[in-house]
Amino acid sequence: MKNAAITSATKSPLSPWRCLPLTLWLGLGLIAACQVLLLLDVNRRGGIVIPSPTPLPRPNGALEHVARWVAVNMTGLGWIGYLLVFDGLLTRLSRTRRDPTIASIRARPNRFVVAWLTSIPVWCFFDWVNFYFMDAWRYHGLPPQFSQRVVGYFIAFAAISPGMFLAAQLYQRLGLSRLCTRRDSANRRAAWTIVLAVNLILAGAVLLLEPKLDAAAGQRLPMWASAGLLVVPGTAALILTHSVMVGSVAFGIGFTLWAVLARDPLGNLTLWVGLIFLLDPLNHYLGGPSILADWRKGRWGRWLALMAAGATCGLCWEFWNYWALAKWTYDLPFIGGLEHYKYFEMPWIGFLGFLPFAVECWVVLNTIVLGLERLGLRVAEPLPNDQAVI
After folding, report:
1. Distance (Å, rounded) from C-alpha 29 to C-alpha 85?
2. Residue 135: which of 332, 325, 270, 336 has the closest Cα?
3. Separation of alpha carbons 154 and 49, rounded Å
4. Cβ burial 243-273 (10 Å sphere, 16+ → b, else e)
5. Strand partners, 347
6. Which pTM value belongs to this model?
7. 89-to-97, 158, 167, 301 alpha-carbon distances in Å
8. Is 1 or 171 the better-scoring residue by pLDDT?
9. What is the separation, in whole angstroms, between the first and last Cα of the chain?
10. φ/ψ (deg, to 5) at 283
11. How far, rounded to the nearest angstrom, does the alpha carbon of residue 362 sit from its chain's CA centroid?
12. Helix or strand (DSSP H, E) at 329
């Protein structure tokens, strides 16, 4: 009987090893294999980092050709492995806690697909703002054929939003969802204060740095115009209406417009928060998930989980990006000497942008889903509760 009990415990579905899903192993294996092949290519090219005036040596043999292909496509391959890993971690947590809603891809596959597909146009919007108005980042080593680039875009761009959301879902379930308060009046004041403080701090930073902008070709906005866009509408809306939602929309409009009109990398400071404050109140009005509504109800975990997920993905992005042959670099002159203190290609202070970026992508996804629902297209499953991210 004793041996039978031991055998039964060993075969329990909650045994730690039996709870590790196949996707977790596949993801870890893919990332490890790609890293080994990438290091092989880096060694073959003598440590040359793109962009470089030194031509790359041609690969010899089948293994080096495979390593060179991995080096070109490292970002997309890394993100496939990343998604598999986090699906495995969430599935593992779902099994051990016997809660199927945790495993978001398996429980809500349509929502994951929508997040995957909409991530492409969302990132294309940010690229459009960058390349036409800011020029804060640049791509290097992209394949010359557009058809080859499209495949890379479909994988790398599409994985941006789901990657952050899966990480945030895990962080929520590991404990951040428990960060909540019950005092409604204090929560409303906190939401009001956060919206006002964040926007005024960013607006003040922009106005202090703006005199350093290049005024050539009429690119610099007059100071009064910048102050009018960044400070006046949102502050006036909050004071006149006492509504955090109305004030948020006013700040969001001004911040988003300033990122386009300033025509300078400094627009990064407003681009990565503008859509949050512009669209999140709309999501609340339409009855969907909302960060501002979370704040007003004393739920703090979801936005903290999203920011932590943005930082996690930022670390992975820059790590995989640096040695890749198809990659990006940054030009952020407004941070001055801090631009030289880097984590691979990203200046350390630039990591602050990854935090609101995850929140912004989540807000945009909810706007798209709610908009489609208003058109009669229910393309994604509803979130199971107020703590879920995806």
Report:
1. 10
2. 332
3. 25
4. ebbebbbbbbbbbbbbbbebbbbbbbbbbbb
5. 342
6. 0.92
7. 12, 20, 9, 19
8. 171
9. 45
10. -60, -40
11. 8
12. strand 327-330
